[in-house]
Specification:
- This protein has 265 residues and is of the alpha+beta class.
- It contains 6 helices and 14 strands.
- 22% of the residues lie in helices and 26% in strands.
- Strands 2-3-1-11-12-13-14 form a 7-stranded antiparallel beta sheet, with helices on both faces.
- The longest helix is centred in the N-terminal third of the chain and has 15 residues, at 19-33.
- Mean pLDDT is 84; it is low at 242-265.
């Protein structure tokens, strides 16, 4: 019997890719912003969370614009060499675009920008691969929702429906009259160890957040002077073009160290 032409599987989740379109838009938006803002900051992100980065965008929306896209595209827009840079010294920022990083075009001067970013450190739940910032141990006896992190008088017993999941995650629990019991202490993690998926699940179950989101400025470009200030540890280094060459001057003392260290807006 011939196969019916009506019996076709329609994939409702099938969408067209917009990779090239997004790349061109990111490139064009960065090129458009360069002459509009006096400062460009290259920043890196620790413990990346989209919701926290959205908070940064919204709080800086009045006088800044944030891009968190493909590093190659952002570097290309800034210029990968002095001959292709749209403004003097913007190509010097490209060397700092690696890993989870982005660009902030802003009217804010470096002091106010650094003060804002240094104070923005929200805490969220850790993911697998994160290093534990502290040790966490479940106490023996009846388990509560916060696992002993707060006084029992302020806590509530853990729901009995979670007991099978706890046993699946390796916690030797048992049910006693509808209460989740633990006969002896169980250490979930130690400070300094790399967390696995089971450990992060347990930490989230008991409301223990260990991942601190942070935005760190690596370097910034000053339109007025055509220079790039690089943050290297406790030092601040100025990069500028001189006769087609890059010149480095240490401004805050210390020894000169010549070593310098893919998404859409």
């Amino acid at each position: 019997m011939p196969r019916s032409k009506r019996a076709k599987v329609v994939h409702l989740t099938k969408t067209q890719k917009k990779g090239k379109e997004l790349t061109l838009r990111l490139y064009a938006n960065i090129r458009e912003c360069i002459p509009q803002y006096p400062y460009i900051y290259v920043f890196s992100v620790e413990n990346m969370r989209n919701n926290h980065l959205k908070d940064v965008r919204s709080q800086l929306a009045d006088d800044s614009r944030v891009f968190f896209g493909k590093t190659r595209v952002m570097a290309k827009a800034l210029g990968d060499s002095p001959s292709t840079e749209p403004y003097p010294a913007t190509s010097l920022l490209a060397a700092h675009l690696s890993g989870p990083c982005g660009l902030i075009f802003s009217q804010r001067d470096p002091q106010s920008m650094l003060e804002y970013l240094s104070a923005f450190h929200p805490i969220s739940y850790a993911r697998a691969g994160t290093v534990a910032s502290s040790s966490f141990t479940l106490p023996s006896g009846m388990l509560y929702t916060r696992g002993g992190e707060i006084p029992i008088t302020e806590d509530v017993p853990l729901a009995h429906s979670l007991e099978p999941m706890l046993r699946k995650l390796g916690v030797p629990t048992r049910l006693e009259k509808g209460k989740v019991m633990l006969d002896e202490e169980f250490q979930v993690c130690k400070e300094g160890e790399v967390l696995g998926s089971g450990q992060t699940t347990l930490l989230k179950m008991f409301g223990v957040a260990m991942a601190e989101f942070g935005v760190e400025v690596r370097a910034w470009w000053v339109k007025e002077t055509g220079t790039v200030e690089v943050v290297e540890g406790a030092e601040q280094v100025t990069l500028e073009k001189s006769g087609g060459k890059r010149v480095r001057d240490v401004e805050m003392g210390g020894e000169d160290d010549s070593g310098m260290s893919d998404d859409e807006e």
